[in-house]
Design goal:
heterodimer, A: mainly alpha, MetI-like fold, globular, B: 318 residues, 3 domains, 71% helix, disordered N terminus
Chain lengths: 305, 318
């Protein structure tokens, strides 16, 4: 087991003088701020009036603030409602499925006396280094499993990850005292029951970490759409893929309007796109800082050796 | 009595525990079989002219429906005028990433662990990791907001300085820098977290002892921190070397907006494979490129791992 330092939550190495600490803190703060600057720019553009964007370009200091992009978005909410539903469903189903796949295999691999431990470890590790390639995966998924233009193509292929299996296995090895499991076994608990009642509840930080990473990656899905969804099945488009299409084709918004029959006076194209970007990353922006403290704990015990 | 029973379980491969664990891992095993091991038959594809027999599945079409063409797919691949450029881009980008993605996250992790203020540390962690959660589509929008020829922030700034604007999406010479910057911006927070997580496990008594001995910060970093991080660095480098011929499709296809005039400095093998498959439906050609990509990566990995074994370095993976 990894030895824990006492003040893990407030861990820092002593050794810097007060002066250099101030300078380095300020510099790190600036670097971190620059890192989120693009996101801030997008948010500002989404609240700028279309005229000032057209006149001055994307700017941190728009001439005129405006909510027109968001009011246009709420007026045309129907156009993205379907993709929102698809994305939410894919994220929910995908996250649970991948947590199921990852945690079960990780638990089996964490048991040293499991008969197939070695061979299953190979099964999990080989795909990290060697795969059949996009063409073969595409052929298997579409021609063998018939997943072209189905929602399963968005959920199943990215559902498992060798990396997270290893991380979670390491977490199980380091953080679950074998004595507890032995005691439970002596009381006659079955392996299933031990997994459900003892292992999973003791592994909250890693389940939250992996679950959130998987949830974000499902929320961000577009590649599967690009490969497995034809343009005449646009009801399977995820939010990201709608954005992708908008980038390729500026008229996407107006063409959708003609379908819904809305009367369009003027489309705030530029700010509207950025408003959509903001709406799509909003769930991540909100949930991520809340759970951030688990990441260190989860990754810490998962990746350490 | 129960003690005895447990002992028996441990020995017996058909015992309750083994049976349950096998059942528990069976769904994941099936997933691996279907999504990772079936596509390995794609290696055969590289030596055939694959065509789908209507009404029959993948395996039938592959085994009976397609003709053997020997090394034709590979010959076409090597005769392709773009292949040299594509391979060069892939390898060069990956080598630069390999260096930057080691140095910058390690520096950031060490830097962060020396900062006293918890607020600054938390802010840094949150904002540096945030880009990791943006999809490549979102990133392409963010990049476009800065580099767009008529609306971009960079060009607006250049005009204010009385310089002419740059049409970034038509100038290949800028893109190596842009793409490296974007890649580092997106990934370094996550890699930093891995190093930082490792650092937190270093016994704090070591640092106290070093402080008592009056060791300087640089000495502490050189003699305590870097040796502890070494195994993580080795593993990350090995993984990256194994993927020397693979790139992130999203970075090179989305962020560049697949703009035609900058392909000379942005097209990599994965974009090439995607185009061969989706734009020309050339399965064999695409599979041949994948096979070379994976094969070379694997050979490099095994070779590097062997060197580590010889030298007895800890942190190797195989």
């Amino acid at each position: 087991m990894i030895k824990k330092n006492k003040d893990e939550d407030n861990y820092y190495i002593r050794g810097l003088g007060r002066g250099s600490d101030t300078v380095l803190s300020a510099l790190l703060f600036i670097i971190s701020f620059i890192s989120i600057l693009p996101v801030i720019l997008i948010i500002i553009v989404s609240f700028s009036s279309e005229d000032s964007v057209v006149a001055n370009g994307y700017s941190f200091f728009p001439d005129k603030w405006s909510l027109e992009a968001y009011s246009y978005l709420s007026g045309n909410i129907k156009t993205i409602m379907m993709s929102f539903g698809v994305t939410a469903a894919v994220t929910l189903a995908g996250t649970f499925l991948s947590l199921f796949f990852i945690s079960t295999m990780a638990y089996a691999l964490s048991q040293k006396d499991f008969h197939f431990n070695r061979i299953f470890t190979y099964v999990v590790m080989i795909p990290v280094f060697f795969g059949g390639g996009v063409a073969a995966s595409y052929a298997v998924n579409t021609q063998m499993l018939g997943m072209k233009n189905t929602i399963f193509a968005l959920i199943l292929p990215p559902a498992c990850s060798s990396w997270y299996i290893i991380v979670m296995r390491t977490y199980f090895l380091n953080n679950i005292p074998p004595e507890i499991l032995e005691a439970a076994r002596l009381d006659g608990a079955s392996t299933f029951r031990i997994f459900r009642k003892f292992v999973l509840p003791l592994s909250k930080p890693i389940l939250i970490t992996v679950g959130l990473f998987e949830a974000f990656s499902y929320w961000n899905i577009w590649y599967e759409n690009l490969l497995y969804t034809d343009s005449n099945h646009s009801r399977l488009y995820t939010l990201q893929y709608v954005l992708y299409n908008m980038q390729k084709n500026a008229s996407f918004i107006s063409s959708n309007d003609s379908i819904t029959g809305a009367v369009v006076t003027r489309v705030p194209t530029e700010s509207f796109r950025m408003a959509l970007v903001v709406v799509i990353i909003l769930p991540i922006l909100v949930t991520y800082p809340l759970f951030q403290r688990y990441f260190k704990k989860g990754l810490l015990s998962g990746s350490g050796k | 009595m129960k003690q005895k029973c447990r002992y028996k379980n441990k020995k017996n491969r058909f015992g309750e525990k083994n049976l349950c664990l096998t059942l528990l891992s069976a769904p994941t095993l099936i997933w691996y079989l279907v999504f990772c091991y079936f596509p390995l038959f794609g290696i055969i594809m590289a030596f055939k002219r694959y065509r789908l027999v209507p009404g029959k599945g993948f395996f039938y079409s592959l085994i009976y429906g397609s003709d053997w063409v020997g090394f034709d797919n590979f010959r076409f691949l090597f005769l392709n005028p773009e292949i040299g450029r594509v391979v060069r881009n892939t390898v060069l980008y990956n080598l630069v990433f390999l260096i930057l993605e080691t140095v910058i996250p390690v520096v950031l992790a060490i830097w962060m662990s020396y900062i006293h203020s918890k607020i600054v540390r938390t802010f840094a962690q949150i904002s540096l990791l945030l880009p990791y959660f943006m999809s490549w589509i979102i990133v392409s929008y963010l990049v476009y907001a800065f580099l767009s020829p008529d609306r971009g922030t960079v060009n607006a700034l250049l005009e204010k300085l009385d310089m002419t604007g740059i049409s970034f999406y038509q100038r290949p010479e800028f893109w190596p820098f842009i793409l490296c910057f974007v890649q580092i911006w997106k990934s370094s927070g996550y890699i930093m977290m891995l190093y930082y997580a490792r650092m937190v496990t270093i016994d704090s008594e070591l640092f106290d002892a070093a402080a008592v001995d009056g060791a300087s910060v640089t000495r502490v970093i050189r003699h305590i921190i870097l040796p502890e991080l070494k195994s993580v660095i080795v593993v990350m480098t090995l993984l990256n070397l194994g993927h020397l011929f693979s790139t992130d499709f999203g970075l090179f296809y989305q962020v560049t907006r697949n703009a035609g005039s900058i392909l000379s400095s942005t097209e990599t093998i994965d974009v090439f494979i995607y185009k061969a498959l989706m734009e020309q439906s050339n399965y064999g050609f695409s599979a041949a490129a994948s096979l070379i990509q994976n094969g070379i990566g694997c050979i490099i990995l095994i070779f590097a791992n062997q060197i580590l074994k010889r030298t007895g370095t800890e942190g190797r993976i195989l």
